[in-house]
Amino acid sequence: FPLPGSIFVHNRLTHSIEVSSVGRSLGVIISRELRKRYPESPADFEDISSIVAAGCLAHDLGNPPFGHSGETAISSFFSEGKGKHLEQKVKEEGGRWEDFINFEGNANSIRLLIHQFNGRRKGGFAMTYSMLASIAKYPYSSTAPNQKGKFGFFQSEESDFGRIANELGMICVSENPLQFVRHPLVYLVEAADDICYKIMDIEDAHKLGLLSTEQTICLFMNFFDEEKQQKMKRTMDRVSDTNEQIAYLRSSVIGLLVDECSRVFLDNEETIMLGQFEGALIKHISPLPNRANKEATTISISKIYKTKDVVDIELAGHRIIGFLLETFITAVTEHPTTKYSELIISRIPEQFEIHADSTYKRILAVLDFVSGMTDVYALDLYRKIT
Fold it and tell me: Among positive and negative, which fits the CA dihedral 238, 244, 246, 252?
């Protein structure tokens, strides 16, 4: 929920910590079962939980202010907005325009983790290759995106990602455009995110009054059979605090989904390793929780994500991001020597390479700056400049 005000709901930090906790649980279960299956294997199965937990902490690092609507705002600025005129210049200099018109938070996460910013150490955060591969949900370039236009790395990080993938033995589907099959641990990071965001959003929507208590209890109870529901109702009767009851149901659903996704991974280990597994783990869980999860998705879209207050803030966010991009990109690409541009450029921290040798890299530097802002910081900067 962008700019939620004084009511406590999950933000990107608390979401990432919770996803990491769930990811570690998935990793513990998977590593324990793999050790039973392959007792003589020299593989460090026990490291899986740490790799997945770290990947979960980083999985949303590249998302700009205002979440997915922020991604759309950046993409549309270049595809149909005031940044469109830069296309020819970027292409003439050898830059990849697709990186901008399909701006992707996943690719931006990889960049933030491995790019050497000014004054920073080589290798960025110096993560392990396995951890970096675990967050690449779409391990291909922007010139070979999936059906939703998603991709995993910008042109600027392509050679580095290729090195990581080759070192890990990831299956290469195409050299040009570069495209790999997912690393197996991606499925666990993705599952942890899938388990958390929707369930937490339903709990937050209840706190914000977007869903009634009855609706929320029903959505969570639907994940369980009748016998289990009766036991859960008896447990709920022990407390009278409504938020405590909802929290109990939320944790019960998460526990169920952790077990379900672990089972799907282990049942499909061979096809996952061969790069032949289709879709996310949560799409393949047992029929009863699968139906409940689909219903939760439908309700979330209609009652939460498209509610008027959320949409209004996303519209405002679209305007804020468009203004910031126009202001800073104009300053670094077209008028870097005017007095106003000098003032604007002075607001950009020195780690961002706004004096790079190509238009593509200078635009990326501005995107590094803007995409790293929180919602509140972006709003504050917009207000100060205007």
Answer: negative
